[in-house]
Amino acid sequence: MPFLLENRQIVTPGDLLAEGDYLSGNNTHRDDSKIYASRLGLVEYKGRRVQVVALNTFYVPAVGDLVVGKIVEANLHGWTVDINSPYTATLKASEALNRPFRPQRDELSEFLDVGDLVLAKVIAYDRTRDPTLTIREPDLGKITNGQIVSVSPAKIPRIIGRKGSMITLLKKETRCSITVGQNGLVAIRGRNQGDEQLAVLAIQKIEQEAHTSGLTDRVSEMIRTERGSVG
Amino acid sequence: MTEKPTLVSEKGLRTDGRKANELRPLKLEVGILSNADGSAYIEQGKNKILAAVYGPREVHPRHLALPERALLRCRYHMAPFSVQERKSPAPSRREVELSKVIRQALEPAIFLDKFPRTSIDLFIEVLQADGGTRCAGVTIASLALADAGIPMRDLVASCAAGKADGQLILDLNDAEDKEGEADVPLALMPNSNAVALLQMDGLLTIGEFDQVMQLALDGCKRIYAQQKEALKAKYLAIKEEAEEAEEE
Amino acid sequence: MTSVMVSRLRQKQIAQLISSGKRLDGRGLTDYRPIQIETGIIERAEGSARVLLGKTEVMVGVKIEVGEPFADRPNEGVLTVNTELVPLASPTFEAGPPGEESMELARVVDRGVRESKAIDLEKLCIIQGKKAWVVFVDVYVLNHDGNLIDASALAALAALMNTKVFKHEVKDDEVVIKPGFIKLPIVNYPVEVTFADINGRLVVDPWLDEEEVMDARLTMAFDKDSRLCAMQKGGTGTLSPQQILEAASVAEKKAEELRKLVVKS
Predict the structure, then answer these.
(1) pLDDT above 90: percentage of residues in chain B
(2) Is C7 near chain A, with CB under 8 Å?
(3) Can you tell me the distance from the alpha carbon of B27 to that of B125, in angstroms, rounded to the nearest whole number?
(4) What is the pTM (predicted TM-score) of this model?
(5) A127 in contact with B, Cβ within 8 Å
(6) Which residues constitute the domain of residue C224?
(7) Rounded to whole angstroms, how far apart are CA atoms C113 and C107?
(8) Do A157 and A219 belong together in one domain?
(9) Which of A22, A222, A225, B95 has the maximal Cβ count within 10 Å?
(10) Contact yes or no for C44 and B36 at CB 8 A
């Protein structure tokens, strides 16, 4: 019997998942003919591929990712940005301003200062250097209002849902604009604080129960109940 | 001259009522600290120990960063009130040695090369000590690392065995450690049957050592099963609750 | 975020809410977070307690040993308070000798206990001028989510009330420990209440994010008869005498509430 466990069973690092001619997918590793879990999560068997959907991870940047970052330092030619990752990111002035940067005349902190939040995109990253960001595309830039919720990056796919089903539901039922950062930070903007708070609660519930089934219905019901009690 | 206390009676019972190959009852909890990236807690006999992981994160000071892999750092430390005679909070030579030995027990289990130029900082705080604290430390450090989502080859389970009053015993408590004839702490990665920590003090023949090691290996495997239960516990509870809510 | 610095957006939200009398976690301006107190959890210590104040977690262990009295107080026992901000409690704590934050915490907790004369130190004298009981109060912060002072002071009081001193007798100028214990003589119950000044409003029991944005901090300790026995202003901002007096009035009531959690009479 090649598949040793039930699909979507919780596994821990070192659990034996499969033996034989199988492909070692996400969060698994192979030792000879045996495939083991590397992280705590749910095992998934798909054809000849075994992977583990991790219950908790930290964010490792990937080029093209949308992230929410916090400016922690303003330097001579740009800013240092905390993107909730083991790696600190850099945002160069040339990737922030829509016109040429003039070091003598432009005071960077007038544009973005320490403590500001930004929606940015990762444009470069590899093992030898820290990630770099851009905010020059439309829809990117400083976040000036709303709320930020922090979740484990492992839960981001669940918040988006299959083909965006969960995020679409959230936006509709909370009437908020919700932007999901791949780094586990979600930016919410609603018409009032009540709506924003609903979105926060819903996202926190998804994070907590991401590994269970029937979640979409329970989230929908929770939003309706909470909204009803507020009136 | 004070009389040496009896550690193992003629009937083979130890001071805490255990038989020679019995582990102390174990309680493991995962994810109990909100600031740390991963954490775990153990109660074992009178041992009360906390482990926490921060990382992978930026290395401070910068010059210690390694280009090809993460730097694993470990600090084993005992609270002043953890032992019979109050201990000064400053690190002792023993704590420095144990910090190193524990770090080296966990390194083989972690995929350090996946996170170059970062550090993984492990902290073990002994709140109350009752023998076997370095083993308990390794056991919960593994859980804290897994809780933090750091990818690992396997969990590392750890346990000590030794000799007291001529008998070979498993999981020594404080008195057995201090007054017994030998103490052998050991840590194991069970999938590959790889020993990651091994120390010894006392006197044993090779034959005795072999038996003691078998005892310790067996103890580690039993602890390994409990580590897995502890990691899953939180999520299983949430799953059960969610499924119950569904049925209503 | 890995950096603890609070974003501008959040700072603005916290300040706005407080101006309208509310806090980000739903509390009122004078509400404490949920508090849990456990005592006697470390058997090796002569006394111990663990306090959970919201997510802030502090453990205190009390050890009693025979030592020498201070030269200027030959017929009293000795009290010493030490704090450890261990690195696992916060990404901002580093291993090493106590820094200024740790020192201040130790001394503020010490002041509350010492100035209220909570421990009857004279009863801890063994041989005048030569031997006395030394009470080591070790405060161990396990998780920092704001307001370490109040959590530590509460844990210290609970631990001291739970502390046993060995019975002893003196033979030829030597102290001989006998079997059995007596309770550490506690005659007063100091409690500390800390405020954060955020945009001119004082809030009780600041959590971590509120501490990051506060302009100043004010701690007041009251004894069982509602007398002030210690005070400490922290932070680089300033307070008006009016604010301080208003705070005292609020703190007195809060101290009473907190004391009831520790002293069951």
Answers:
(1) 87
(2) yes
(3) 16
(4) 0.91
(5) yes
(6) 20-262
(7) 10
(8) yes
(9) A22
(10) no
Closest Cα in chain A, distance from residue B149 (Å):
5
pLDDT in tens, C149-185: 999 999 999 999 999 999 999 988 888 999 999 999 9
Q: Which domain CATH number covers C217?
A: 3.30.230.70
Any idea what the CATH number is for the domain that residue A216 is in? 3.30.1370.10
Nearest CA to A113 out of C133, B88, C8 is that of C8
Smallest Cβ–Cβ distance between B243 and the set A14, A31, A212 belongs to A212
CB of A185 within 8 Å of a chain C CB? The answer is yes
Residue A59, domain member (yes or no): no
DSSP bridge partners of C90: none
Residue C154 falls within a domain, yes or no? yes
DSSP codes of every residue in A99-153: S---TTT--HHHHS-TT-EEEEEEEEEETTEEEEEE--STT-EEE-SSEEEE--G
Residues 60-79 of chain A whose Cβ lies under 8 A from any Cβ of chain C: 70, 72
Size of interface B-C (CB pairs under 8 A): 90
> Is the CB of A226 inside 8 Å of chain C's CB atoms?
no
Given a contact cutoff of 8 angstroms between Cβ atoms, the answer to whether C23 and C15 are in contact is no
Tell me the nearest-neighbour CA distance from B207 into chain A, angstroms: 31
For residue A198, give the H/E element and its range.
Answer: helix A193-209
- Tell me: pLDDT of A1 over 50: no
Nearest to C138 among B50, B81, B91 (CB): B81
Domain that holds residue A14: 10-54
CATH code for the domain defined by B26-247:
3.30.230.70
- State the DSSP code for B113: G
Average pLDDT, chain A: 91
Question: Considering the domain boundaries, does residue A27 fall inside one?
Answer: yes
- The more confidently predicted of residues C249 and B234 is C249
In terms of domains, do A114 and A170 share one? no
Total structural domains within chain A: 3
